[in-house]
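Quick one, probably user error.
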């Protein structure tokens, strides 16, 4: 699809509503993943050693070069050993040695 991106000012009513709706959708997706994983672990009769939650197709407010920006990360999140260790260093040390 070759489309010009639609940009919304977060300070506008529509931009604020969009951002808040996206955050709500992210929380809903997170809860859904938690529920499904809990059911699978229960069926298997086991527990998780490590839980990794990392949204994709989501935007975060972040600060870069001293400026507040909204960053969109599209697609799958990396799951290499290094990526997991960098993001979840304390939890992964014992598991991925």
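Nope, works fine. Designed sequence:
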């Amino acid at each position: 699809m070759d489309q010009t991106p639609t940009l919304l000012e977060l300070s506008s009513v529509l931009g604020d509503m969009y951002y808040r709706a996206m955050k709500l959708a992210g929380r809903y997706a997170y809860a859904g993943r938690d529920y499904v994983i809990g059911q699978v672990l229960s069926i298997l009769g086991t527990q998780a050693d490590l839980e990794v939650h990392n949204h994709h197709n989501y935007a975060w407010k972040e600060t870069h070069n001293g400026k507040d920006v909204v960053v969109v990360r599209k697609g799958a999140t990396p799951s290499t050993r290094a990526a997991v260790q960098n993001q979840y260093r304390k939890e992964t040390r014992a598991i991925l040695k």
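Residues 36 and 42 are 10 Å apart (CA to CA).
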